[in-house]
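This entry is passed on directly below:
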Amino acid sequence: MHTLLMLLAGPMQSWGHRSRFDDRDTGLEPTRSGVIGLICAAMGIPRDGDLSRFDSLRMGVRIDSPGRPAIDFHTAMRVVRADGTLDRDDAKNTVTSHRHYLGDARFIVGLEHEELGLVREIEAALRNPRWPLFLGRKSFPPSLPVHLPGSSVMENTRLEEALETLPWHRLYEREQRPKYLRLVLEPPRDKEVEAATVRNDWPVSFVSAKRRFMLRGLLIRDLPSDRVPEGEVLPCSCPA
């Protein structure tokens, strides 16, 4: 097995997996649909593109910094009605919504696959993306490159080993290292492991009128941070 590692860091991120109508939620870590969407943007795959080639990827997330949950209150005018017509009476028909997001969060995402070619192809696209990348929403760009310095691919390395051996980096000198780093992992495909929870975020189609997702199982555990090597301060750091 080979594992591709990605750094998802930014002032704002949002990873919704149960958003409905005027309440747009966010999970506490990147969703599979959000990560696959980011990869599709990097590779230039349109919304109606075939997503099945990514089904064999096994995904895991290490939460290096959980960030701060926050909510924005939004209003919108000139809203398109359900019948497709445009509502021009702005004063009477303003639509309100709540948008949830994570502030200053930082994640390491790992993607495990048995074929090195696919992993290398994704890495090359992340280094030279065809379309802009964003962290869950188009208004949330990453503050650092999503690929790692040097190589983002750890050959002949399982997902768990890759996430446990990649150094933890500080964003600034005084950042406190957490006692534990939470891991959210998809169960190994070659073992019978009962999932601890499920999420409805496995993308089947990104077509706007036919968006479909499936359930996926997840394992959640805490990794003692003293088992993870200490890295350097990230290059975007500033005095705290």
Q: What stands out?
A: The chain has a mean pLDDT of 85. The CA atoms of residues 84 and 95 lie 16 Å apart. Residues 32-43 form the longest helix (12 residues). The two ends are 40 Å apart (CA to CA).
